Amino acid sequence: NAGVTQTPKFRVLKTGQSMTLLCAQDMNHEYMYWYRQDPGMGLRLIHYSVGEGTTAKGEVPDGYNVSRLKKQNFLLGLESAAPSQTSVYFCASSYAGELFFGEGSRLTVL
Amino acid sequence: AQSVTQLDSQVPVFEEAPVELRCNYSSSVSVYLFWYVQYPNQGLQLLLKYLSGSTLVESINGFEAEFNKSQTSFHLRKPSVHISDTAEYFCAVVNFNKFYFGSGTKLNVKP
Q1: Using a CB-CB distance cutoff of 8 angstroms, which residues of chain B are in contact with residue A25?
Q2: Can you tell me the distance from the alpha carbon of A77 to that of B41, in angstroms, rounded to the nearest whole number?
Q3: pLDDT, tens digit, for every residue of B78-107?
Q4: Are A102 and B43 an interchain contact pair (Cβ–Cβ within 8 Å)?
Protein backbone atom coordinates (compact mmCIF):
# COMPACT_ATOMS: atom_id res chain seq x y z
CA ASN A 1 0.00 0.00 0.00
CA ALA A 2 1.82 3.09 -1.26
CA GLY A 3 -0.46 5.72 0.35
CA VAL A 4 0.38 9.16 -1.05
CA THR A 5 3.16 9.38 -3.61
CA GLN A 6 4.72 12.59 -4.93
CA THR A 7 6.91 13.00 -7.98
CA PRO A 8 9.45 14.35 -8.47
CA LYS A 9 11.11 14.49 -5.05
CA PHE A 10 13.64 17.12 -6.09
CA ARG A 11 13.68 19.69 -8.86
CA VAL A 12 15.71 22.77 -9.74
CA LEU A 13 14.13 25.32 -12.04
CA LYS A 14 15.21 28.60 -13.57
CA THR A 15 13.01 31.65 -13.12
CA GLY A 16 10.23 31.62 -15.69
CA GLN A 17 10.24 27.89 -16.33
CA SER A 18 7.14 25.80 -15.84
CA MET A 19 6.67 22.45 -14.18
CA THR A 20 4.08 20.10 -12.73
CA LEU A 21 4.17 18.19 -9.47
CA LEU A 22 2.20 14.98 -9.45
CA CYS A 23 0.43 13.54 -6.43
CA ALA A 24 -1.13 10.09 -6.48
CA GLN A 25 -3.08 8.34 -3.73
CA ASP A 26 -4.32 4.80 -3.68
CA MET A 27 -6.70 5.07 -0.72
CA ASN A 28 -9.75 6.22 -2.69
CA HIS A 29 -9.93 9.46 -0.69
CA GLU A 30 -12.17 12.26 -1.90
CA TYR A 31 -10.20 15.14 -0.43
CA MET A 32 -6.74 16.11 -1.56
CA TYR A 33 -4.50 19.07 -0.74
CA TRP A 34 -1.32 20.83 -1.76
CA TYR A 35 0.70 22.59 0.93
CA ARG A 36 3.99 24.42 0.91
CA GLN A 37 6.32 24.36 3.89
CA ASP A 38 8.72 27.20 4.58
CA PRO A 39 10.92 27.66 7.67
CA GLY A 40 9.07 29.27 10.55
CA MET A 41 5.79 29.40 8.66
CA GLY A 42 4.42 25.93 9.08
CA LEU A 43 2.34 24.51 6.26
CA ARG A 44 0.26 26.80 4.13
CA LEU A 45 -2.57 25.53 1.97
CA ILE A 46 -2.16 26.30 -1.73
CA HIS A 47 -5.13 24.55 -3.32
CA TYR A 48 -7.39 21.69 -2.42
CA SER A 49 -9.98 19.42 -3.97
CA VAL A 50 -13.10 17.88 -2.49
CA GLY A 51 -13.55 15.39 -5.30
CA GLU A 52 -12.79 14.47 -8.89
CA GLY A 53 -13.21 17.44 -11.20
CA THR A 54 -13.31 20.04 -8.40
CA THR A 55 -10.62 22.38 -7.09
CA ALA A 56 -10.57 25.37 -4.76
CA LYS A 57 -8.12 28.02 -3.60
CA GLY A 58 -6.41 27.85 -0.26
CA GLU A 59 -4.41 30.46 1.65
CA VAL A 60 -1.64 31.06 -0.91
CA PRO A 61 -2.90 30.16 -4.40
CA ASP A 62 -1.20 32.85 -6.47
CA GLY A 63 1.24 31.53 -9.04
CA TYR A 64 -0.11 27.98 -8.90
CA ASN A 65 -2.75 26.01 -10.74
CA VAL A 66 -4.17 22.58 -10.01
CA SER A 67 -6.21 19.88 -11.71
CA ARG A 68 -8.05 16.82 -10.45
CA LEU A 69 -9.06 14.96 -13.59
CA LYS A 70 -8.90 11.59 -11.86
CA LYS A 71 -9.85 10.88 -8.28
CA GLN A 72 -6.47 9.41 -7.43
CA ASN A 73 -4.35 12.21 -8.91
CA PHE A 74 -3.92 15.86 -7.94
CA LEU A 75 -1.53 17.93 -10.04
CA LEU A 76 0.11 21.18 -8.98
CA GLY A 77 1.43 23.41 -11.76
CA LEU A 78 3.75 26.37 -11.79
CA GLU A 79 3.34 28.25 -15.07
CA SER A 80 6.21 30.70 -14.57
CA ALA A 81 8.37 29.82 -11.61
CA ALA A 82 9.69 32.55 -9.30
CA PRO A 83 12.38 32.37 -6.59
CA SER A 84 9.64 32.97 -4.00
CA GLN A 85 8.27 29.55 -4.92
CA THR A 86 11.38 27.83 -3.63
CA SER A 87 9.91 25.56 -0.97
CA VAL A 88 9.06 22.03 0.05
CA TYR A 89 5.70 21.00 -1.31
CA PHE A 90 3.53 18.40 0.38
CA CYS A 91 0.53 16.66 -1.02
CA ALA A 92 -2.01 15.09 1.30
CA SER A 93 -5.33 13.30 1.19
CA SER A 94 -7.80 13.09 4.02
CA TYR A 95 -10.37 10.73 5.39
CA ALA A 96 -12.33 10.77 8.66
CA GLY A 97 -10.55 13.90 9.84
CA GLU A 98 -7.04 12.63 9.27
CA LEU A 99 -4.49 13.87 6.77
CA PHE A 100 -2.16 11.46 5.02
CA PHE A 101 0.96 13.10 3.66
CA GLY A 102 3.38 12.32 0.90
CA GLU A 103 7.10 12.58 1.54
CA GLY A 104 7.42 15.99 -0.05
CA SER A 105 8.92 17.56 -3.16
CA ARG A 106 11.79 20.00 -2.74
CA LEU A 107 11.70 22.70 -5.40
CA THR A 108 14.43 25.27 -5.91
CA VAL A 109 13.91 28.19 -8.28
CA LEU A 110 17.08 30.01 -9.29
CA ALA B 1 -11.43 32.51 10.05
CA GLN B 2 -9.23 29.88 11.60
CA SER B 3 -5.75 30.36 12.95
CA VAL B 4 -3.33 28.34 15.01
CA THR B 5 -0.57 29.80 17.16
CA GLN B 6 2.40 27.86 18.43
CA LEU B 7 4.26 30.25 20.68
CA ASP B 8 7.51 28.32 20.95
CA SER B 9 9.53 27.82 17.79
CA GLN B 10 12.11 25.67 19.58
CA VAL B 11 12.03 23.72 22.83
CA PRO B 12 15.27 22.19 24.11
CA VAL B 13 14.86 19.59 26.83
CA PHE B 14 16.95 16.88 28.45
CA GLU B 15 16.11 13.23 28.04
CA GLU B 16 13.59 11.91 30.60
CA ALA B 17 12.41 15.42 31.46
CA PRO B 18 8.76 16.47 30.97
CA VAL B 19 7.80 18.72 28.10
CA GLU B 20 4.84 20.86 27.06
CA LEU B 21 4.37 22.25 23.56
CA ARG B 22 1.81 25.01 23.47
CA CYS B 23 -0.94 25.51 20.91
CA ASN B 24 -3.72 28.06 20.84
CA TYR B 25 -6.35 28.38 18.16
CA SER B 26 -8.99 30.84 17.14
CA SER B 27 -12.21 29.76 15.60
CA SER B 28 -15.75 30.99 15.43
CA VAL B 29 -17.14 27.49 15.07
CA SER B 30 -16.61 24.06 16.56
CA VAL B 31 -13.24 22.64 15.65
CA TYR B 32 -11.37 19.43 15.38
CA LEU B 33 -7.79 19.65 16.64
CA PHE B 34 -4.68 17.70 15.76
CA TRP B 35 -1.01 17.31 16.51
CA TYR B 36 1.25 16.14 13.71
CA VAL B 37 4.92 15.18 13.98
CA GLN B 38 7.56 15.56 11.30
CA TYR B 39 10.84 13.68 11.53
CA PRO B 40 13.77 14.96 9.44
CA ASN B 41 13.26 14.67 5.68
CA GLN B 42 9.85 13.09 6.05
CA GLY B 43 6.23 14.09 5.65
CA LEU B 44 3.96 14.77 8.58
CA GLN B 45 2.39 11.97 10.58
CA LEU B 46 -0.65 12.17 12.80
CA LEU B 47 0.26 12.05 16.49
CA LEU B 48 -3.17 12.50 18.06
CA LYS B 49 -6.50 14.17 17.45
CA TYR B 50 -9.49 15.60 19.25
CA LEU B 51 -12.80 15.27 17.46
CA SER B 52 -15.30 15.03 20.32
CA GLY B 53 -15.85 13.35 23.66
CA SER B 54 -13.11 13.24 26.28
CA THR B 55 -11.04 16.39 26.25
CA LEU B 56 -7.86 14.43 27.05
CA VAL B 57 -6.47 12.45 24.15
CA GLU B 58 -3.43 10.22 24.09
CA SER B 59 -1.02 8.85 21.52
CA ILE B 60 0.52 5.40 21.46
CA ASN B 61 3.99 6.73 22.30
CA GLY B 62 3.14 8.54 25.53
CA PHE B 63 2.10 12.01 24.33
CA GLU B 64 -1.18 13.51 25.45
CA ALA B 65 -3.08 16.70 24.70
CA GLU B 66 -6.00 18.37 26.41
CA PHE B 67 -8.65 20.36 24.63
CA ASN B 68 -9.52 23.44 26.66
CA LYS B 69 -12.40 25.30 25.08
CA SER B 70 -12.39 28.24 27.49
CA GLN B 71 -8.70 28.91 26.89
CA THR B 72 -8.87 27.86 23.20
CA SER B 73 -5.83 25.68 23.75
CA PHE B 74 -4.67 22.21 22.81
CA HIS B 75 -1.27 21.85 24.49
CA LEU B 76 0.81 18.73 23.92
CA ARG B 77 2.56 17.10 26.86
CA LYS B 78 4.80 14.16 27.61
CA PRO B 79 5.96 13.30 31.15
CA SER B 80 9.32 11.85 30.07
CA VAL B 81 10.84 12.43 26.64
CA HIS B 82 13.26 10.24 24.70
CA ILE B 83 15.96 11.11 22.21
CA SER B 84 13.73 9.61 19.52
CA ASP B 85 11.10 12.30 20.19
CA THR B 86 13.36 14.88 18.55
CA ALA B 87 11.25 16.23 15.69
CA GLU B 88 9.11 19.16 14.67
CA TYR B 89 5.55 19.20 15.98
CA PHE B 90 2.65 20.95 14.31
CA CYS B 91 -0.71 21.80 15.78
CA ALA B 92 -3.61 21.95 13.33
CA VAL B 93 -7.29 22.76 13.21
CA VAL B 94 -9.75 21.66 10.55
CA ASN B 95 -12.93 23.36 9.51
CA PHE B 96 -15.03 22.47 6.47
CA ASN B 97 -12.33 20.01 5.39
CA LYS B 98 -9.59 22.65 5.28
CA PHE B 99 -6.67 22.05 7.62
CA TYR B 100 -4.81 25.03 9.10
CA PHE B 101 -1.40 24.54 10.68
CA GLY B 102 0.65 26.40 13.24
CA SER B 103 4.21 27.43 12.48
CA GLY B 104 5.65 24.39 14.24
CA THR B 105 7.74 23.72 17.34
CA LYS B 106 11.08 21.99 17.08
CA LEU B 107 11.62 19.68 20.01
CA ASN B 108 15.29 18.97 20.62
CA VAL B 109 15.89 16.25 23.18
CA LYS B 110 19.42 16.27 24.58
CA PRO B 111 21.14 13.32 26.29
Answers
A1: none
A2: 23
A3: 999 999 999 999 999 987 788 889 999 999
A4: yes
